[in-house]
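Hi support team,

I've been running sequence recovery on a batch of backbones for a student project. Most finish fine, but this one hangs at about 90% for roughly twenty minutes before it completes. I'm not sure whether the input is malformed or the queue is just slow. I've pasted the structure tokens below so you can try to reproduce it. Let me know if you need the job ID as well.

Thanks,
M.K.
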């Protein structure tokens, strides 16, 4: 997942887990690339979208939606441009093509986008400043839509739901402490006031180590 998603659920889970198990230490690595469990000595990962291949075990923990947002200057009745002609603001993970499944409705080729970045926060700010249209996590824009700063434009037939997964390496046994924390994190997400918002965190690769 992009590394500028909120950390609410993970930070709450770590804090409460360590309160009960103070000798457990966490090494949390945050970025938007897919790392190797063995090479990076990882016990588990949190990934969105496609969690990985046959060599991993994925456990879905949440689902969240995406929508297409732009400044009201591009909204219906403003007479500026049709939705297909608005400059495209594209999410581009590091080391990946500019066009991702989330932005496929906006661009046909890499040459068609106006701005590409690996930050949803920056894409949102660009949309607020009228730079174009961006596919963004819907919950990040709810307040701006309610206040009239952004408008929600049609996204067509593209699937707007993205899963969030806990991911483990299938070739090695899950240790008791990792299993315990995984269950605890899932419980925190399920009991949160708004589990979709708190669970849609950045893709965080987490290693729990007992000192």
């Amino acid at each position: 997942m992009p590394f500028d998603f909120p950390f609410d659920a993970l930070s709450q889970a770590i804090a409460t887990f360590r309160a009960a198990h103070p000798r457990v230490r966490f090494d949390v690595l945050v970025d938007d690339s897919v790392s190797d469990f063995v090479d990076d000595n990882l016990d588990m990962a949190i990934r969105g979208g496609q969690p990985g291949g046959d060599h991993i075990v994925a456990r879905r923990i949440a689902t969240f939606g995406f929508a297409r947002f732009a400044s009201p200057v591009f909204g219906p009745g403003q007479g500026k441009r049709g939705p297909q002609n608005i400059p495209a603001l594209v999410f581009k993970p590091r080391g990946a093509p500019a066009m991702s499944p989330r932005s496929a409705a906006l661009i046909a080729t890499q040459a068609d986008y106006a701005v590409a970045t690996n930050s949803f926060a920056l894409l949102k700010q660009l949309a607020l400043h009228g730079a174009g249209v961006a596919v963004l996590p819907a919950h990040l824009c709810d307040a701006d839509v309610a206040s009239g700063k952004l408008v929600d434009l049609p996204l067509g037939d593209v699937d707007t739901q993205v899963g969030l997964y806990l991911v483990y390496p299938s070739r090695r046994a899950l240790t008791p402490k990792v299993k315990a924390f995984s269950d605890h994190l899932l419980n925190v997400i399920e009991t949160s006031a708004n589990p979709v918002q708190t669970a849609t965190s950045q893709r965080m690769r987490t290693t729990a180590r007992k000192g």
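--
Follow-up from support: It reproduced on our side and the slowdown came from queue contention, not your input. DSSP finds five helices and nine strands in the chain. No action needed from you.
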